[in-house]
Amino acid sequence: MNFDLLAFFLIAVLGLGICFLGYRAFLVFLPLWGLLSGLWLGIEFGSVFFGDRSIATIASWALGIIFGVILAILAYWLFKIGFTLVAAIASGAVASVVLTALGIQPGLLYLALLVGAMVGIGLLIRSYHGEKYAIIVLTALAGADLIVFAFLLLTGAVDVSDLMDGNLLSPIIRQSWISLAAFLILAGSGVVVQTRINRNYEYTPRIVNTVLGK
Predict the structure, then answer these.
(1) Can you tell me the distance from the alpha carbon of 185 to that of 162, in angstroms, rounded to the nearest whole number?
(2) Which of 19, 57, 58, 205 reaches 20 to 30 Å from 188, CA-CA?
(3) For residue range 135-145, what is the model confidence (pLDDT) as tens digits?
């Protein structure tokens, strides 16, 4: 089987699951979300301080692994704190795309705005106890991102190597307004579907402890 076709299938299926069933499956993958979020954060900080945005940069990888392990542990043992950090960092990934689109390059201003966005989102979630809807929105966005990326991969518009960029939203925005529109429609659909099917379902301490095996 062609590698790109296999990658398309795996990424698309994963994206569909996350986009439309993300809230139900979120706890199972929470440590992984923490690891990936920390990895992205390390790469982002590495690009600012070491001047190289490539995921292959040794310093960026080292920071990413350190942050990733810490967040994975926090996400597992301290659900609310760990989730808030993961959600804030995931929001920072979206903010980084917006900043880049505005022409703000990695530097002190970029870093200050990025940290401000993450802190603001984290405080907002904690202040209004919005964990449920934050999970729904973030998983819908992440799933839609993966689905559109998979189809762009199938058409040859992007390459598997683009996965190494650490942010899959960037190539989607770079392609065309059609891919961006598809992303927004899928994300919106994911939010609607997840809100409906989880109307009477909400994580409780008992569910959290059961799923995480505590």
Answers:
(1) 23
(2) 205
(3) 888 889 888 98
